[in-house]
Amino acid sequence: MRPTAVVLGVGPGLGMSIAHRFGRAGHAVAVISRSGARHAGYLAELAEAGVTAESFVADVYDKDQVLAILDKIEERFGSIDLLYYGPADQGLLPKPITEISSADVAQAMTWVYPAIDVVGRVLPGMLARGAGGLLFAGGVSAVRPMPALGSLAVASAALRNYALTLNAALAGKGIYAGALTIGGLIERGDIHQMVTSQPARFGDVGANSLNPDDIADTAWQMYSTRDRAETTFSAFE
């Protein structure tokens, strides 16, 4: 039975590149997003590339719903061998770090909590098999001070630290955890498309972009070689 990769928070940018890369390596792929409106297109694209894939609808911020979908995926494919966590946040508008409150941080942390819930669901099976992988996509404000991002920077740092600490705890048990720390717009992603379609409003911000295929290739290398727990990608250097 082929291994299964779950892409939680799939979109036209990095999520689909992750699906393609792990599918090319022989994984069956399950893609999840809160809306199924674009799933037919995603599945057609993956099928054309020779990737076995199915799509599922779940809101990552609805704990019961997303855990039920993970149960369904495991029943369908037999196991979950790689989990990629890359959902968008809930559209929070950041305040400068000097103006945030504990309530702002608590709201930003709602982006982190589902990662802990889904890991809690898939990790027991990985431990039983002595194999598996967990990948988390977060922002570069986790490692570089970006005061304007305020509570979002705090949440990014929390997700990164969770990934790195998981890797330290699981490395001797056959399970990999890694952080993809990203600074810049992701080509083909929704935000990139919005920004580049409105140059009068956003200027040349779209020039600071990253190729999602390159990030996905690196993610595969991290997972397969396990030679590092983090890679930082920045379009601002």
From TrEMBL:
The family database entries (Pfam families) matched by this protein are listed as: adh_short
InterPro entries on file:
NAD(P)-bd_dom_sf, SDR_fam
In terms of superkingdom, the source organism counts as Bacteria
Q: Which Gene3D superfamilies match?
A: NAD(P)-binding Rossmann-like Domain
- Write down what this protein is called: Short-chain dehydrogenase
